[in-house]
Amino acid sequence: MNSVGLQYKDRNSSNSVFSKYRSLTTALLCTLVSTSTFATEAEIKPIVLFQSEIHQGSYLYLVDKGTRRFEQTTSIPVTRKIIDKSNGLYIQELINAAKEGYSPIVVIESNSMDTFADVARTYPSIRFISLDVSYHVPNILGLTFNHAEGAYIIGYLAGLKTKSNKVGFIGGKNIPTINNFKCGYELGLKDSNPTAVLNTDYINKGPRSWDDVDSAKAISQKMLDENVDVIFPVAGYASLGVMEAVKNDGDSFSFGVDQDYSMQFPSSTLASLEKKVDVAVFAALMQLKNGIWNGNRKHFGIKQGVINVAINSHNPSVSTSDKTLIDKLILELKGKNNAISQKINLSCSSTQ
């Protein structure tokens, strides 16, 4: 395995950790291949291009977790490369990887690169896996996620818990993927508390946006000083800055994102929006290993179990009725043609 700059110690590397994902992954594999024509097992040479360092518990950590599971399952090595300077350099490394015959190439943040689709068209024999964005390009598989579904539940809970009637949203960058979270969050907020006011801000520092904990903390403090008492961060590893600021404030609440932060912030987080991108990445790599290519977009949400809201049972401010409500909303969102999904599709489709 070629690992460049991986600076974390994985506490969950044993095969036993993966067992809890087995049924979910099986279901996802069925989703991925349900309309496909099976081909012979393909020889693949995967690479993942990370746009910044991998911090344990971060979104990038989950992506890497999915690739490590693939390596353990198949014994096929996955090359990793970390590019942390500029999107221009990222594009050059993308071109280099294609020239060197890597396939599939997993691209983390294609929505910030205007020329990504052109690069893919230049190398039609190379497969690309794009996270969060899909393209009408035959050799790009877009793994997209209905963030708005989970964010709706987060927003609904925020509306119930705010005392000041001021809640906050802090995004890493002002881009469609992040605004899909914001859209669902605002819909849920208004449904539970129509008089609540949403304050929004973004870190917006290019590729550094997802790691800039200090900026996230500063933005949070500004909101807290303005009497915002519930904040939802969607800023990758930088989200920790928001959670830390809220914890230190002692009189406000935040939410976790990408994974469950209940244990790390037991008294200050209300819930966490889990995005199990590791399971989606693993399933996509397995599909390509099995020689299957059946369309250029796979969409995951609460129905597929990839998006989930984990309530913080350690927080005394989260009541039994809150937990019951969250379970009810999740169950409703899993149903066909439910009213919440229809509202989300009508309001938030343009932000995906």
TrEMBL record:
It is found in: Cell membrane. Keywords: Cell membrane, Lipoprotein, Membrane, Signal. The keyword NADP does not apply. Its main location: membrane. SUPFAM superfamilies: Periplasmic binding protein-like I. The keyword Cell membrane applies. One of its GO terms (cellular component) is plasma membrane. Residues 48-328 form the ABC transporter substrate-binding protein PnrA-like domain. InterPro entries: BMP_lipoprotein (IPR050957), Peripla_BP_I (IPR028082), PnrA-like (IPR003760). It holds the Pfam family Bmp. It is a lipid-anchor. Belongs to the BMP lipoprotein family. This is BMP family ABC transporter substrate-binding protein. It comes from Vibrio marinisediminis. The lineage of its organism: Bacteria, Pseudomonadati, Pseudomonadota, Gammaproteobacteria, Vibrionales.
